[in-house]
Protein 1
Amino acid sequence: MIKLVNVEKTYFSKAGNIAALKKTNIEVKEGEIFGIIGLSGAGKSTLIRCINMLEVPTGGQVFVDGQELTAMNEAQLRKARQNIGMIFQHFNLLASRTVFDNIAFPLEIQGLSKDKIAERVGELLDLVQLRDRADYYPSQLSGGQKQRVGIARALASNPKVLLSDEATSALDPQTTKSILQLLRDINKRLNLTIVMITHQMEVVKEICDRVAVIENGVIIEEGTMYKVFTEPQMETTQEFVKTVNDIKIPPIIDTQSMKQSYFPGARLLVNLTFLDSGAGGDEVEKKTGADQPLVSALIKKFGVDVNIISGKVDYLKDTPYGTLLVEIMGDEKGIADSVQYARDAGVKVEVIGYVG
Amino acid sequence: MSANMIDLLLKSLGETCYMVLIAIVLATLIGLPLGVILTVTRKDHIMPNSVVHNVLGAIVNATRSTPFIILMVAIIPFTRMIVGSSIGTTAAIVPLTITAAPFIARVIESSLLEVDRGVIEAAQSMGASPIQIISKVMLPESLHSIVLGITLALIALIGASAMAGALGGGGLGDLAIRYGYQRFQMDVMIATVIVLIVMVQGVQTVGNALSRKLNKNKLS
């Protein structure tokens, strides 16, 4: 649906040229929710604006729905943009227009008749559940309602692609959830392809199918959300994953005297992640994690004691995964064998350290 | 003050209104497109063109830096060409328009620059053409601010119209000079000043109210 081939964007200035985006290749499939995560200044805003040519790339090709946008003239490009909706962090609604007229705006631009506009706007108001707010002005709405208007406006001309530029970054966590829910809903219902940029890992975790991590204008990691989340390769990616999956060690455990090697009487603190078997599609090898009695197996097989400190079940989009923070107590070999056994069983084991 | 004087005052008031209102309409008709062009041709705006921007900017600045009384004299040949005479109330409309148009252009430019770039970007993302962005986004979004700017220009014109009296333009300024100052009729002077104050207050009040009504940014 979307294909970027060697897309580059360099800003030329007297003070020096800034390469905001270096040769970037991305392919987004139809009906997919594709996330692009990066810190501010990483180039994600530039990247998403290259997709609808709000930023004209200085090199490479952009294809959307089989058409090459980089080969179009202004008029053709305007026509093509009607096929690509966009929503924004700060909503960018017209303050002088009511909710109804804001949603009608893209249809007016296309020169639709008043009757057709009214009909279509009515449908969209129902879709985003704002029919009772049709005559309100944006300044009378909450942030979440404004973004709903933004979404309705972006969908007005039945686009095949929706670009989301930090659409939830200005919203509180609860509103963020409801907006993401709405996006998931329309993604499924309309088979809409969504590309979203964000700096929030929670957002990616909630709705993305695939994700790319961008840093200094380069995509440093890309894959299914499940894979990137559970097996982050690059340091930046690991930092992002940590923001939603940080291991919290309770204060009763003395981490000051933690050592990385065994000493007599030591307990090994490990974090176990149980992945759903077969989750994440074909790219993740089949794992047996959650359906095996791991803890009791360790106790029986290796003569160790296992103390569970904390645990939770979370979701990656629709896929559940569990984490357990445990202490393994026993002799050096027993602990080492336990770790190996857990790994062999397909459980992700993060060794934190030995505590006294 | 005699009934005769009151008649004279009303006649002068009528002349001032005539000059100022026609001048403001004409100046807006000229200043609006100028302001739009000055805005959109900026280098980071929707139709960047530094040549047009700089040339237009220089003309606007040159006109604005000429004192009105000098401008009025300097363009007498031009005024005569247009209205056939350089003396009289109608003739005063020409310099008044020429002095107000660049002022309005700048005022409109600054109003248009207040329009959030994000909103313009959103319109571009929907495939709006530059003309549509100007007519459907920039002007409606800044209308409340433009109204305040034109109010400002109107008040400046009322002041300038008093000077137009110096060239036989008539109006309240002319009345105050000839009767109030040259004939020492203090009551005429005071009456004229009061009428001018009331006029300016009225214009500002109406302008504020209209702008407030158009501004949908702070509704509760």
Protein 2
Amino acid sequence: MCTYLTEKFALEGSGKGAQGYFALTEAMVYVDHPQHAPYEHTVNIDFLNPSQGPSSRVAVELTEESALALIDAIRSALAAAPPGLTSTAPASKAA
Amino acid sequence: MYDAVLAETVTVSGHGGDRIEAYSARPMAAGPFGGVVVIHHMPGYDAPTKEIVRRFAAEGYAAVCPNLYSREAPGAAPDDAAAAARAAGGVPDERLVGDVAGAAEYLRGLPSSNGKVGTIGYCSGGRQSFLALASLDLQAGVDCYGAFVTGTPPEGFPLQVSPLKDRVRDLRGPLLGLFGNDDQYPSPPHVDELEEELKARGKAYEFHRYDDAGHAFFAVDRPSYRPQAAMDGWQKIFRFFGEHL
């Protein structure tokens, strides 16, 4: 099915696309047909910077298990680092 | 038999007079030929869709596929364009109708045109093919597993994919529907609902439903491809357009 559903949020960081690194400003997460992964549906994540055009995009297409493993791995990595180390919030920086 | 085909990127006038990119393929003979507007699937105006356009030309139709994501992502790779269109909230129905109208006008303007134009769409394009047939002067339409013609979208779906059941009464020409019985959107009950409404409104239609096939069974580059269903479906499509265009 085409789910049409899209979770979109603003973010800060960088990604490496076809033309090298660029600043990221938003991301989309959606469950729908992949472009490349050999499955009928995948969890698709696009890291984007629309102000730099549609090609400023880093895309991944993951199975459900892989997406959930990614979430766990991110949480584990953050938990293992000093709190707030990668945060942009001023209060956290001090920690 | 002379069978040369010309395939090329062209520009057509879409919704609001916007000049949009489109892929055209047409026989090089004098005609007259019927026209087919190909409506690409949600993953975009991609190489397999252009192959479909050329296939219609090889079968004796002038065909054109408007790039529905032209505005969001002119010149971008099809996957990047699809992502940009999704980020912008998708293709509004009104704009789709205007873009198909422009594509149909392009086909009718060809010297080889017989004046008749049909549409075919896959996936989200199936729903859009139905919408075009209910909105424009078209002689036939094919809906390949379009979700949300009937059925209720789950909560949170954007407005532009609202169901179109109330538009059945507006259909201008016969509808050919091709569906996989393992599909969830549209599910067999969704297809039943559409079929009942077509019957109730006395509309000409022809539905075929395939076992062991789900969504996107025509998509040759995806694991959903089902050769048996797709080959039979193609035969049905050419017979249908042969009768009506």
Protein 3
Amino acid sequence: MPVRDYLRERFFPHMWCPGCGHGTVLNALLRAVEKLGLDKNDIVMVSGIGCSARISGYVDFHTMHTLHGRALAFATGVKMSRPELTVLVPMGDGDALAIGGNHFLHAARRNIDMTAIIMNNRIYGMTGGQFSPLTGYGCFGTTAPYGNVDHDFDVVELSTAAGATFVARSTTYHVIELADIIKKAITHKGFSVVEVLSQCPTNFGRRNQLGSAVEMLETYKKQTVPLNSKAAQDAPDKIRRGIFVEKERPEYSNEYKKMIRTATGES
Amino acid sequence: MSRHLKFVQGNVACAEAALYAGLEFFAGYPITPSSEIAEFMAKRLPQSGGKFIQMEDEIASICAIIGASLTGRKVMTATSGPGFSLMQEALGYAVMTEIPCVIVNVQRGGPSTGLPTHVSQGDVNQARYGTHGEHAIVALTASTHQDIFAITVDAFNFAETYRTPVILLLDETTGHLRERLDVPKKDEIATVGRLKTSVQQGVDYHPYLPREDGRLPMSDFGGAHRYNVTGLFHDMWGFPTESPKIVYGLIRHLVDKIEHNADQMTRWKEYYTDDAPTVLISYGAASRSALHLVENRRKRGEKLGLLELQTLWPFPHALVREKCRHARAVVVVEMNMGQVLQQVKLAVDQPEKVFLANRIDGELITPTDIQNIIHVIQGKGV
């Protein structure tokens, strides 16, 4: 099926700013879905609030645009109720890790089978550029006019510690790699986290002198290296990309199915 | 034995009724005095193939049930004051997206942590006004286990019929009190199933286009129709819009579908109201004490009557006006500072004849407490 058949084209052009990375995430996500040959009727996308969350309006799946930070909690109800469905949960960095931080930790701990995509632009874009938990020390935002004194999370370490069984990172520069990682994340049976560095030239780049969208993409190219590569060995300070965790652990809805068998005396 | 008698807590009566009504999914978080409902569900739901999940907080609990409801399940969560406060934003989401669900609030003393193990009826107004923005809400209550059972089934039926969250306002006293429950036989009480769309796959389905009778047939997530659900103002396809015309139409629809059907949802009981110059109005645990007093005084020839409300929202103003028409005094008996009193004053022709008999110290109001206040009203002193 052509990728455009997964889109609700009547809602285009999309509402993201020129140069925003989120459209690229949408592109990579749809290519992953297309490669997997998934039926549109079998996919539920649950999003929260923010620039990232608007992605659910553009895809022709069962889509639920919910509350700020709560997408994973709504998605847990969907998945528990209908484990056969593929559940995709795109979130922004503030959405997933500030207001939604607790739900994120517990979804990872349960290892419930869904794919969390954190579209990390390091800022609250929709509300005008306030700092997020991924903005980072020393960076600027409208609520960090003198430079941020808040430290950021490392999404990979956080997800791993919380128990996610698939953890990966990529960027909007590395589109082919990103689509491949999302494909693997969807296929993985358990809670999958994909952090995508996604440029916000309007509200993060401008305030932090990072240049145009193209320059920000160039930075992703220069400042990241594939995990376990020669380039990574040579540059210990650069950001790692790739799949950090891919392991098996009993999946929540599957375990619940077994519990039902115990409760009904079938096992 | 044809009858199914139990001796249980009110919380269990509510939980039994939820299963009777067809509950398939429950999400909750431990909180006194409602935890027995979650414990019951953890044990019983998987036995019937249903699902229970203990979430990380009350916010997640209500979000999870809304998600599950959208896949076609009957759903419920249960909590108490602090947890109910946390649920308010998602309650508004369920109102806006018209997703059926039942939220039980076994009321305890507040504000804040308050009195976790003591009774209160302080959340009547929070049930009505807790979530932001203009909206209508359905909130029900009951005072005996048999009535808690029936009203819980009503809660599920109203949620499905009107595609709305329904709040069950129980209280610590009835929640923890143990008394007899006669579980009705299957089909003895009617249960309303999910109204599903008859639109075939491939034909344009409008999830938010009401039928002529005002009802909105649903399509399960994962089913034949893909659509959008959002807490933003939305059009008949479920997509965001800022069109003033559509915004106005939706907010009117959300309020009118409840207010215009208020009569269908009004549940009450009355005792000796026909000839009573003094009518007590009460609900929940407080009405047990009120009824005790009324029956005792009747034996001594004093003409007291009681109107026990079971539907608190939409508030039955017309019913209250009718039942109080000939009363010289109306005494609202409740365990707060007059939340239902305010509504009764709005309902009756002479608000100056409405008095409050209340307790707000965490103790159950007693028949003697009510009697003393009636004496004061009658000019007899305490």
Protein 4
Amino acid sequence: MAYVATRGGEKAIDQAERLFRQDLGTIDAARVASIQQSMPYLVDRVMGEASLYSEELAALALAQTGGELSEAVLVLRAWRTTQPRLAVAAPVRQDDLLTQRRISAAFKDIPGGQILGPTLDYSHRLLATDVLEGKPYTPPAVEAAATPAPARQPSLADWQRQQGLVAPATEPTIAPDDIPDLTREPLLFPASRAHRLQSLARAETGGVLALGYAAMRGYGNAHPTVNELRLAEAEVVVRHPNGTPFSAGRVRVSQAEVTSKEKGGYLELGFAATFGWNEVKVIAAATLDLNSAEAPVGSPVHEEFYLYHTEPVEASGFCIHFKLPHYVTFQSVLDAMRDAKAKAASAQPAPEAATERQTEPAE
Amino acid sequence: MFNEANGGNGQDRPGHGDALSLLARARPERLKALAEGLLDGLGEITVIANRTGLVMVPMRDTVENVDFHLGEVLVSEAHIADATGRIGYGMITGRDLERAMAMAVVDLALAAEPNADAIQGFIETERMHLAELDAERMRRVEATRVEMETF
């Protein structure tokens, strides 16, 4: 079977796109700026899934797709391909992160302490309907501390290694230019850890959540506890032509480590990170990473299953392609169905005919 | 005309990386105004590159210490040279070619005269401004420090 090109409908197609865009109205810089300013977490989600960090372009993508997330991610991924890669930055290390939220559900007293940062975790989820009655909601100001929090916090996993709780890890020797890169090579299985973590970093939030949640509910082999969760900013460290490293700016990142149980004398850990502040995604993704080691092939927590099915552009693209013309495919189904019916009908006499024969007066 | 191998500037200068990092985060309008004022003193300038592009950002996994790619960041880059071969370079996150060029112009002026008062004064002002912004934010963050108790 093959797809077939269809002809016709050009005018309708043109008008359909116009209808979509006309419904959204004029898109100007003010609208883009408003989205960027008022919906930072949505912008973060789109940047993470698009694997392209630009708050301005993510806001533009949301504006021109009306917030249709799969379309917004697709248009950003497509735009990315028009740009040259100028450099590979220095690897971001956890203890260099400018950390604004850092919590652990596994260890109460962690070096550096726990900082809730910006969160709705312990708030009442009440819709501020007064706003719709003309009463603007102005949030109460934070009562700032006298001294600032340290910008950088030590790595909890490193501290746990020093305590003998987590397996030792060797320093990587790979040069940044040689790190496996999914944007330039295919995802093959078993995947390298670099491919797995890159794929999870750009995975679709809802897909990762669904599969991670399935693992948490019991369809996996490890129930997670958050070892450390961070929302932070990372410096993008590049090099001047004379070799001097410097930061070209900061990007928001999320990191999660989850742990489950002891294995071989050490705590097992799962890890995930993404662009933007998106805790649900990194906790769910780290849970999938944690579950991968002993996952049966074909189960939702096996890496081949979850990496293939959480790639946002491939997943949404495959799903929505089913609404495009499949007339040849479907015609063949109809033909086969009619043929089978015809054969079945000819194989046995119709009851009505038999009855008629019985009532036929004998000659 | 210029030596790409060492950027045309010879050995790296003390504090150069720190200055570049501050220029990359400096307030855009002030940076552009500074660059505008420096341009006349730089003579003929060759633009080697002024473009947008991507920088891939790797991250180190904390579990197995594996480096992996987090994703790409949109940046603007400017690379210029003066008649003597000195290099000026700017790279900033985001889409603002003028700002990247302004950074490159200031970097070129720094290469010519590392202790120029106007530039050093600008860098110090921006350093204090950015430090105050960070401190203000982190004082609010510190207010959310929590001491958990178990019963």
